[in-house]
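To whoever is covering the structure queue this week,

Two jobs came back overnight. Logging them here so there's a record in the thread.

Job A:
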Amino acid sequence: MKTLPITSTPTPWGFPPATLILGSNEVHVWRAFLDEAPAQRDSFLHTLAEDERTRAQRFYFQTDRERFITAHGVLRAILGRYLNREPNCLSFCYSSHGKPALVWKSGGDAIRFNMSHSQGVALYAVTRGREIGIDLEFIRCDLEVEQIAERFFSPCEIATLRALPVYLRKYAFFLCWARKEAYIKARGEGLSIPLNQFDVSLIPGEPAALLSTRPDADEALRWSLRELTVASCYSAALAVEGRGWTLSCWQWPRPLRSTA
């Protein structure tokens, strides 16, 4: 793959403080590497609920199964730190479109979160009192991105993609896809929101933005988009309800090994 351009200031992934404080105008994003040692993975497995263990067993490939266990174990560990609860004591519920949330007794009134994982890397977004969505995409070389864009992107996005130099189009496609996925995940309505009914920015080097929404043009004003730099060959985006929030990015719990 041709070297990908840097489209924004690199995200500063730091190690979290011993005591986590999440204010009402703060968003925290965590990055985790999912290929853990067997002992750590077994520890995570013991914190999962029965339905999570069942879902893990449905994966055909062992690597996918192990990464699922680690991804959900890390999620429970992170949320437990904010709520001062043991990870295995947390309970989740799911919307009609599958968006997870904490049940009320586990702190569902206090914490909102979303997660995404791809090819051994996971991202977790945590906030209070506002909807949030996050998406992580591994930039694959084997996709016919222009054909996929024709099916799912808006006319404006398709035109913008076509106007880019050929060598940038694949990267721009994944920027667009991650931003669109983050937004619909934040909305929690899945693909009941047609992907061609809203426009996001996709030109490399320009800020992530929700440019327009249809049929309600004011909907775009409710949301903020942010690009995240995660690792080589990944695209990631964060969608947050409202504006005026600050972002902190944490590494769980050790540096990400090179995925180049």
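Job B:
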Amino acid sequence: MWAVGTVTEVMSETPTARRIVLDVPGWPGNDAGSHLDIRLTAPDGYQASRSYSIASYGSSQRLVLAVDDIPTGEVSPFLTHELRVGDQLEVHGPLGAYFVWRPAGFGSTTGPVQLVGGGSGIVPLYAIARAAADAGRMGDFRLLSSVRSPGDQFFATELDDLAASGLRIDRVYTRVAPAEWPLPPARLTRETLALAIPDAASLERSYVCGPTPFVEAVAGWLIDLGHSPGTIRTERFGGA
């Protein structure tokens, strides 16, 4: 069923992305890693819906999203340029039980977990990392973020806080690296992935999220490196 959420806060996340906070009465809560659908309806009745990862988790009816602008898209340009506090959005969810992480029960882990995000694919992984920290399990988690530049990092301040609290974060900058960075900007490769993550025998599960080509490449490299397909959870971006 579709529910109606009210926008309570909007802010710039990166030069091309916006953080959106929604209040959705009756929201049943969601696990870390879940996503939802947003539906827009034009004055002539035309409807377009797209899926977006949820950056928050738990029982609250307050939801946090972070949406990157895709200029050719049907939904993201409205969310990143036109949406205002007080506006209402139709939402459907939570969705995506396969990609979630829970501290106990179905979807939980007891051993090390690797998170790999490309661009805005960091959004559900940030939620998982926060859930792991709140559950006292952050020592089992590592995050690899592939991002164009430091300014394009979603949840940069929050990730710095998690890193200061013990989360291992590795970054690959594909276009612009910080002045003190030891490596020149370059895309993530099988070799750099292998250097940044534990060997297959040391990991219980991997979560990979980002654009479809990124996810397919990383999942393939993980299998090449000896990781069992059953331990790899993937989430791919669709339309915008």
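Note for Job B: The longest strand covers residues 3-14.

Please reply-all if you pick these up so we don't duplicate work.
Q.
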